């Protein structure tokens, strides 16, 4: 099982809202996930990001790989490429 930290889209048409989740790489984008790790709202200025930092560190310690978008969000929030 390969775990990814990625975005799952919520919200209405043309009003996106995302959950940052830990999910098996074979699960659908908006389907089942292992744990919700935060949220991302690009519709407010500046974009609102909330994170459960301890859980993100846990999943990355277990070998979860963030997607490029999540990696850039984490970097903007002060996480390095390897926060452990």
UniProtKB/TrEMBL annotation:
GO terms for biological process: translation. It holds the Pfam family Ribosomal_S16. Keywords: Ribonucleoprotein, Ribosomal protein. GO terms for molecular function: structural constituent of ribosome. One of its GO terms (cellular component) is small ribosomal subunit. InterPro entries: Ribosomal_bS16 (IPR000307), Ribosomal_bS16_CS (IPR020592), Ribosomal_bS16_dom_sf (IPR023803). It comes from the Bacteria. SUPFAM superfamilies: Ribosomal protein S16. NCBIfam families: S16 (TIGR00002). PANTHER family: 30S RIBOSOMAL PROTEIN S16 (PTHR12919), SMALL RIBOSOMAL SUBUNIT PROTEIN BS16M (PTHR12919:SF20). Belongs to the bacterial ribosomal protein bS16 family. This is Small ribosomal subunit protein bS16. It comes from Desulfocicer vacuolatum DSM 3385.
């Amino acid at each position: 099982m390969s775990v990814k930290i990625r975005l799952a889209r919520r919200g209405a048409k043309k009003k996106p809202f995302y959950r940052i989740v830990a999910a098996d790489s074979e699960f659908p984008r908006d389907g089942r996930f292992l744990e919700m790790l935060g949220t991302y709202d690009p519709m407010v200025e500046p974009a609102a990001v909330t994170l459960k930092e301890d859980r993100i560190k846990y999943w990355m310690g277990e070998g979860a790989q963030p997607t490029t978008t999540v990696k850039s969000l984490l970097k903007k929030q002060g996480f390095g490429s390897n926060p452990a």
